[in-house]
Design brief:
13 strands; seven-stranded mixed sheet; 2 domains; Beta-Lactamase; about 350 residues; Rossmann fold; six-stranded antiparallel sheet
């Protein structure tokens, strides 16, 4: 049986309802996520093992099907009738195929449209160094990164190479040339793509995710050798990001990496998406910019003191998560309850709100 038509209908509903995600799981109705809440599509049929497999396979070529069956999971992007793109993860659970699909907006939004701190524009004009965008899964890291890359694309004549798994946002080259490499389609791994990138004459390199020692090490080297490097990391704060990077390396290399990172890091943006009072989500951000004090703390292995520098350097454009949350409350963008729920230090936040 051909499930592609019934699946197209479900995808159309997902787009029409402005959902962020679609979940296909055997024994359940298809479910869409709207402003964080999962809603079952009860007018559709309950998913069977056969329909789940049919829907998943309708998105894949033979290579992807083979990979799913051998690896038991696969990440890829799917262009739906030229309307929108989905980031897809197909995986097995209890012997059945499931799908988790994230809707990727066809339009790359600007820093202003995303309600991000204006200081992020400063990163766009740098000639070299490392910029990290961090946060938990699903907190808008890829969207922020796309906004930064696209602003460079429209304002500077540079050669930009992205390494992604999978490609989410598609850039239309403007003043810059933007070349996008997808892991497992255009390159075998982040590590091998990063090694090869030095021979491809880039000015700007975007690494979808820094996952392992090889990727992290090469990204730092690229930032040291005259490239502007943007990357994401799954951590909740700037201090955690620095700790995570250094901790990946063997003990005997960590001191050297601290010095390299202190010299090459431009800044870290950590973000959490908080429910807006008007509906949808808005980012609360911690922004750390690398200054003399931050560089010294990284070299001296005093990452735990970085939040104090962030808190006392607002004049330079730095921003703590609690200041960001308090500001969103004052602007009536988010509720007091949500601000406290999303804070890592609610006691301090309450004093700001008072």
């Amino acid at each position: 049986m051909d499930y592609s038509q019934s699946f197209k209908k479900i995808l159309d509903i997902t787009i029409k309802e402005n959902a962020s995600d679609l979940l296909i799981s055997v024994g359940h109705y298809p479910k869409i996520r709207i402003t964080g809440q999962l809603i079952p599509l009860q007018k559709e049929k309950v998913i069977t093992a056969e329909s789940a497999k049919g829907m998943a396979f309708s998105l894949m070529d033979e290579l992807k099907k083979t990979k799913l069956l051998s690896d038991k999971e696969i990440d890829f992007s799917y262009d739906f009738d030229g309307k929108v793109r989905f980031r897809v993860n197909a995986f097995f659970q209890r012997g059945y195929i499931s799908l988790a699909m994230r809707l990727v907006s066809p339009k790359i939004k600007t820093i202003e449209e995303l309600f991000l701190p204006p200081v992020l524009h400063d990163f766009i004009h740098k000639s070299q160094g490392l910029v990290l965008v961090t946060g938990a899964s699903g907190q808008g890291k890829s969207t922020t990164l796309a906004s930064l890359i696209d602003e460079i694309n429209h304002t500077r004549a540079l050669h930009i190479i992205t390494i992604e798994d999978p490609i989410e946002y598609v850039y239309e080259s403007d003043r810059s040339i933007v070349e996008q490499r997808e892991v497992s389609v255009d390159t075998n791994s982040f590590g091998s793509a990063l090694k090869a990138v030095f021979r491809q004459n880039p000015d700007v390199i975007m690494v979808g995710e820094m996952r392992d020692l090889e990727t992290i090490s090469t990204a730092i080297t690229a930032a040291e050798t005259g490239h502007l490097v943007f990357a994401t990391l799954h951590t909740n704060s700037a201090a955690q990001a620095i700790h995570r990077i250094i901790d990946v390396f063997p003990a005997e290399q960590q001191n050297q990496i601290r010095f390299q990172l202190a010299g090459s890091l431009l800044g870290v943006v950590s973000q959490r998406l908080v429910p807006r009072l008007k509906g949808g989500f808005i980012p609360a951000c911690e922004v750390m910019l690398s200054n003399t004090a931050v560089s010294n703390l990284i070299r001296e292995n005093k990452n735990h003191e970085i939040p104090v520098v962030i808190e006392t350097s607002s004049k330079e454009g730095m921003l703590s998560l609690n200041r960001s949350l308090a500001d969103l409350v004052m602007r009536k963008e988010i509720s007091v309850k949500d601000s406290i729920d999303y804070s890592f230090n609610p006691t301090e936040l309450r004093s700001f709100l008072r």
